[in-house]
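Collaborator request, handled under Task 6.
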Amino acid sequence: MVKIRSTGDRRGIENVVVTRKRFAYEEAVKADPHTYDVWFDYARLEESAIEAEADYHRVRDVYERAVANVPPAADKRLWRRYIYLWLKYAIFEELTALDAERAAAVLAEARRVVPHEHFTFAKLWVRQKRLDAARKLLGQAIGRCPKDKLFKEYVQLELQLGDVERCRKLYGRYLEWSPSNCAAWAAYADLEASLGEASRSRAIFELAVGQEQLDMPESLWKAYLDFEIGASEWDKARALYRRLLARTRHVKVWLSFATMEVEAGGEGEGEAARERAAAVYAEAEASFRESGQKDERVLVLEAWRDMLARGGSEAALASVEAKMPKRVKKRRPVLGEEGEAAGWEEYYDYIFAEEEAAAPSLKILDMARKWKKQKVEGDS
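Structure tokens returned to the collaborator:
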């Protein structure tokens, strides 16, 4: 008897607590019905208080009252919280009430309410279990409010089903809608490569790099190069590097090109591969010497030296080391915001062999420094 009484007392206390919280939430939503976080807490309270199916009406009543308060303005932050109310409502119907039809009806109403000219909210379209209905919904979504996530979800669905032709059509629509999307181009080419369709993959990459505008061209070119290198198509990879260097002389392209030449050497071709890589390094070093880009030139020389240190001849290594510059500390004036003198700052510069030959005074200064150092050491 004592145990039953304590259980009954506990339930009574819990009911009192729930009732008080209901009252507090009712007051809060009356004061501001667009405070969606309060509606979330209110719905969570009712879901936690469910004891039987007869209690579902309380949860549904809270959600229905909550979603009736459409955001008064096209504010993405407000609409995001509002849409999550709809999603939570649908999840309750699907997982708690086990009513799939009602959950689908909730999502359909949410899609009707959303102003698609301003927002898409892909989550409202992709939550669908039936295959035919999912395809229909995703097709409608892409037609009404195309978005990266929608295309990706649809492609993933068709990939899981093994329908390659549908995937190709979807990528076609995707890239027609967003031709500058490098990630989409690379994903399409990767799909074809995974199917063993190397010629199709290469054709897609060619179309991609031919676009006038691309959001991340460096990632696309890298994907194309990785594809050719992965297929051991060394001549095609070399031609691709040359095309890329015609567009940009960035040091990373040169270094990657030289690294590829080393990797291209098969068994017994180590020396020939290093010679090809050395030719690339030499060309890069000459290019940066001509353009006066010292930092880039040093990076090339360091990579060239490291390659030879791992397996080149001593003569070749000595030749590259002779090209290495001296690192010297210099001072330069600093100007303020209005162009006035604001002091001096120290910085490091590189002095290459040809610069020393062109400036004898530098040698004199170097000799003076050495003499002073020797004198100090002698005095000590």
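The cover message to the collaborator said: "Confidence is low (pLDDT under 50) at residues 1-6, 117-122. The two ends are 100 Å apart (CA to CA). Please let us know whether this matches your experimental observations."
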